[in-house]
Amino acid sequence: MTYSQNLTLPALTAEQARRLIERSGRIPLFAHAYAFHLNFRCNRIGVEELLHFAGDHRLQGIKIHLDDGESLSLRHCDDGRLAALQLLAQRQGLEVHLEVSSTDSAELREAVRIARLLAATSIRCYPRYAGRVSEIMAWTVRDLGLLSTLDPHGQFRFTLEQHEDLKGDELVRIVEAVGNPNLKLLFDFANMLNAWEQPLDALRRMAPHISDVHIKDARVVSERGGWGHRACRSGDGELPMARLLLELLLLGDDEPQVLAYGLEEEVDYYAPPLRFAAEAPDPWIPYRAFSETELAPAADLEGLLARELQDARDQLDHVRGLLRQLRAHAEHWL
C-alpha cells in the first residue's frame, strides 16, 4: 500500500450541497493550545492568552491539556485561579475542552475535578500503554468503563483520540465495548498514518462515533516499512485537508455530528511509525512519552516563538480559505 492524498472533491447531491454550505458557515472552530506549544513551555503565554486569542478570532472555544504551561498549567492552578479562568471563558462566550494523555483512572479523575471547576464540557484522552494491541484495547475498555462512576450525571463528553497506535476499527470496537453514550471518538488529521492507515479510510471507519477533530497538516515519512509523520504549516503538507473537512462536515443528518474542530498547528512535530505493512497479527506497541516538539540545541528560540504565533494565525486563515473553497464546490452542485 502506498500513501494516497485523495485530493479530489466528490460530486454532491443537492441535499449534501445545501448541508455543506450551511455547516461550513457555522463550523465550531476551537483554538488548540498545542499550536502555541513552545510559547506555553517557555511561559510566554498562558490559558488567559489562549482564551483571548479564541475570543479575538471569533472561535467557539479552546482545547487545552492539563499540563500545557508547565508549572503554570491547569494541573497546578488553585481553585481561585480556576474560578477566574471559568469566569473569563464565560464572559467571552467560550467553551473549554480539556485534554489528558492517558486513560488511567487517576488522570481522568483529576481531569473531571478541574473540568467541573472550569465548567468545561469535554475531556479528551488516549491510551499510552506498552503491550500487544489486544492488551491495549482490553486495558482501555477497562479504564473507560469507569467513566460512568467518575461522571455519574453525564456532565461531560469524553473523547478517545486516535493517537498513532490504534487503527480506526480498533477504536470503534473500544467505544462499542464500553457502551457509554457520552464516549465518542476524536479524529486527528494525521495520527492514523503512524498506525499504517490512510486518512480517509480511518475517517470512514471511525465516522459513526466522531464528535471532535484536530485539524493539522503533515508530510508523510516512509521508514522501516511504515509511515511516520512530520507536522508542517497547513497547506504545505500531503494531507487531503479540504476533502477531510468536507466529509466531516457532512456527518449527521439533521444536525452536525462533529461538535468541535481544534486548530492544532504542530509545525515540526515528528511522530515515528508504530504499525507496519508486514506486522504480526497482534503487534507490540512500545511505551511512548507525552507528545512534544523537539527543539534543536542551536535553534533560534525567540524566532521560533514568534513564528509559532504567526503560524497559528495563518492556520486559521488557511482553514477559513478551505471552507470558502468547500462552499464554492457545493454551490456548483445546486
From TrEMBL:
Domain of life according to the entry: Bacteria
One Pfam family named in its UniProt record: AP_endonuc_2
SUPFAM superfamilies linked: Xylose isomerase-like
Organism, as annotated: Marinobacterium rhizophilum
Transmembrane feature ranges: none
Xylose isomerase-like TIM barrel domain mapped to chain residues: 108-252
Organism placement in taxonomy: Bacteria, Pseudomonadati, Pseudomonadota, Gammaproteobacteria, Oceanospirillales
Name assigned to this protein: TIM barrel protein
InterPro entries membership: IolE/XylAMocC-like, Xyl_isomerase-like_sf, Xyl_isomerase-like_TIM-brl
